[in-house]
Amino acid sequence: MNTNDFLPINGTDYVEFYVGNAKQAAHYYQTAFGFQPLAYAGLETGLKDRTSYVLKQDKIRFVLTSSLDPDNHIAGHHNRHGDGVKVVALWVDDARKSFEETVKRGARPYFEPVVEKDAHGEVVRAGIHTYGETVHVFVERRNYQGAFLPGYIAWEPPYRPAETGLKYIDHMVGNVDWGQMDIWVKFYEDVMGFRNLVSFDDKDISTEYTALMSKVMSNGNGYIKFPINEPAIGKKKSQIEEYIEFYRGSGVQHVAMATGDIIHTIRELRARGVEFLHVPDTYYETVTERVGLIEEDLEVLKRLNILIDRDDEGYLLQLFTKPVLDRPTVFFEIIQRKGATSFGKGNFKALFESIEREQARRGTL
Fold first, then answer.
1. Would you place residue 357 in the very low, low, confident or very high pLDDT band (cuts 50, 70, 90)?
2. How far is it, in rounded angstroms, from Cα 262 to Cα 334?
3. Is 1 a domain residue?
4. Dihedral through CA 163, CA 165, CA 166, CA 167, nearest 10?
5. Which of the chain's ends, N or C, has fewer CB atoms near its CB within 10 Å?
6. Is there a single domain that holds both residue 180 and residue 294?
7. pLDDT of 204-250, one tens digit each?
């Protein structure tokens, strides 16, 4: 624990996606992932330029925002990147101080601290730029009792598919271009006071054809973890290169969501049509030699294609969706930690070979 943490963060406040059709995207995240309706802003609340639907599952909040104006920055962002993460909002006790401390250390301001009020109280927010067009917004909400933020109304539709057991955001991964990883590692170290938790080079993350490098950045209390990936030289085009080509630049590659029962969660998600990467059955022939004793039935994990890895602290179970968009960009990870604090290094090779199979089908390998 960093006792001199100049940027204390309580957790992820929300993740805002700029999307082509927020109404339909909201239906997808409700139906496929079990998110619950929380709040809404749009024409009915006085907005003329955009519509936002807010969804919640336990501690996870997603904001899905679409433009109503073909010429504004939201439409421009979507036109360039497709559906993608614009805002990674961080829950803080003091948004003004968070903004001041990061800007004086070199952050480029996105917007100055602003106080937003309604009948339910007030919220203070401020924003800074990070890699690509992604931004961090600091959210101070201790004096607010409303559904989400001032300007939003409670959204209470009758359609409410059951939750799937997702609990909180475990980590969020950013893909950056060639030679950019260390620049952004330094940004998180110098500007936000994060530390480099673990590093993976192309010897750790490579297959016969492709490779990448990654460094995991974490804040003082460990609530926020941001792995940063960049491509590495390989015989063919890596998943990071494919992402950057189709996203048109750096951005959030995937959001990892934690569950307390991955077997239940994956069963639910598969039943609702969520598609996952597939690793061959041969993966399970040797996995127990690597990870040792686990509580779960290996045959059940094999049927659901759930991956297992172990570190010094315990083990973890994980599975990755295929891209959830037409562009091969953003996807999700489902993770259950049974003591492990790592990121599934032992699964990298099997996973990336699975991704390469998908890339070959897309003609982008």
1. confident
2. 7
3. no
4. 110
5. N
6. yes
7. 766 776 777 889 999 999 999 999 999 888 877 788 999 999 999 99
List C-alpha distances in Å: 264 to 127, 267, 280.
37, 5, 21
Strands 211-218 vs 195-200: parallel, antiparallel or unpaired: antiparallel
Question: How many domains in the chain?
Answer: 2
Give the CATH number of the domain where residue 44 resides: 3.10.180.10
H helices of 198-261, in order, are 239-247
Helices 348-362, 239-247: inter-axial angle, 10-degree rounding: 50
Residue ending a domain, among 109, 128, 154, is 154
Non-local (6+) Cβ contacts of 243 within 8 A are: 175, 251, 253, 328, 329
Q: Which of 166, 188, 177, 172 is nearest to 85 (CA)?
A: 172
Q: What is the pLDDT of residues 119-176, one digit of tens each?
A: 999 999 999 999 999 999 999 999 999 999 999 999 999 999 999 999 999 999 999 9
Give the confidence band of 343 by pLDDT, cuts at 50, 70, 90. confident
- From CA 319, how far away is CA 304, in angstroms rounded? 9
Q: pLDDT tens across 28-78, in order?
A: 999 999 999 999 999 999 999 999 999 999 999 999 999 999 999 999 999
Question: For residue 303, what are its two tokens?
Answer: 């049927």
> Are the C-beta atoms of residues 174 and 131 closer than 8 Å to each other?
yes
| Residue 67, strand partner residues | 50
And the tokens for 20? Answer: 């082509």
Closest alpha carbon to 225 in 4, 8, 12? 12
Element (H, E) at 21: none
Averaged confidence pLDDT in the chain = 93
Q: Which two tokens stand for residue 249?
A: 């630049």
**CA distances to 25, 77, 143, 247, 296 from 66, in Å:** 10, 10, 28, 17, 42
For the chain, give the number of residues.
365
Q: Are residues 172 and 150 in the same domain?
A: no
Residues 149 and 191 in one domain: no
**Residue span of the structural domain in which 95 resides:** 11-154
Distance in angstroms between the alpha carbons of the first and the last residue of the chain: 42
Rounded-to-integer distance, Cα 283 and Cα 99, Å: 47
Residues in contact with 176: Cβ distance below 8 Å, sequence separation at least 6, in sequence order: 131, 132, 183, 184, 228, 229, 230, 250
Q: Indicate whether 124 belongs to any domain.
A: yes
At position 130, the amino acid (one-letter code) is: T
